[in-house]
Amino acid sequence: MRTCKYAMMLSLAAILVLSACGDESDSSSSNGDSRATKAIGTMTDSRDGQTYKTVKIGTQTWMAENLNFKTDGSFCYNNEESNCAKYGRLYTWAEAVGLVNLYDKDSGVYCGFDSACTSPNSVYGVCPLGWHLPTQAEWDTLFLAVGNVRIAGMVLKSSLGWNENGNGADAFGFSALPAGSWLNDGFGNGGYFASFWSSTGDDRSACGMYLFYDRDGADLDYYNKDNRFSVRCLKDDVEKEPITDMK
Fold it and tell me: Once rounded to an integer, what is the mean pLDDT over residues 51-58?
């Protein structure tokens, strides 16, 4: 698998700019960037009434829990409903982006399993209105806000629930749990790994974010779109118009 190129090619200038522009007025942790914010709130998904914790980290507001909105193609880990309550649901990339919601204004085509196109700024996908599936670049923005990609796993992982002493510091309230995934050979890695989709993909694969029980860092890599990963929704930037269903 090839590494998501953007994540590995961040310029020094971009890092310096983001560090200089951080918000120093909010609470912080010594485990991450002292300029990253930590503000906890909640949001309610109007589609099914479920309420999620949210957290502001830097300039971004994230769900602090995995999405648990039921779709026909989503699953609970090991097909056990109790795991959905604990970890949220696992989605294929097609389910995560909603396919028809992933519309490229520049090329005028939809991104499906066999069609390549660049992702627009905001893809609602399976996320509720006002929230969207993060792009690869938006995951990178999160990594920079908490320090860098090499410590992102340590500070974003929950402080409980990881096997083999793999718990994190949960320094920013992101509280990533080891929900596992579904790969070609079935469910696996529960208690050991967390995997999340981005909206960024090509003709056969899509960029996902991985956290590990035995590493402090985080990974962005390309994975088969038929895998089933967790979803964390990111609040829309009010200055941008999110992409909705296009006709």
Answer: 96
* Element of type H or E holding 142: helix 136-145
Predicted pLDDT at 229: 98
Give the integer Cα–Cα distance in Å for 63 and 161.
19
Is residue 121 very low, low, confident or very high in pLDDT (cuts 50, 70, 90)?
Answer: low
d(CA 132, CA 137): 13
Q: What are φ and ψ of residue 84, in 5° steps?
A: -65, -40
Q: Which residue has the higher pLDDT, 169 or 237?
A: 169
Structure token digits, residue 246:
């296009």
Cα-based torsion angle of the residue sequence 243, 114, 212, 131 in order, rounded to the nearest 10 degrees:
10
Residue 15 has a CB neighbour count (10 Å cut-off) of 12
Question: Which residues are 75's β-sheet partners?
Answer: 90
pLDDT for 78 equals 97
Q: Can you tell me which residue has the tokens 């310096």?
A: 16
Q: Can you give the pTM of this predicted structure?
A: 0.78
What DSSP string runs through 57-114?
ETTEEEESS------TT-B-GGG-HHHHHHH--BB-HHHHH-STT-EETTTTEE--TT
Identify which of 170, 175, 101 has the alpha carbon closest to the alpha carbon of residue 133.
101
Within the chain, strands assigned E span: 39-44, 51-57, 60-63, 103-104, 109-110, 131-132, 181-183, 186-188, 193-201, 205-212, 218-224, 234-235
pLDDT at 33: 45
Q: How many CA atoms lie within 13 A of 110 on its CB side?
A: 14
Confidence of residue 184 (pLDDT cuts 50, 70, 90): confident
Which tokens sit at 131? 């929230």
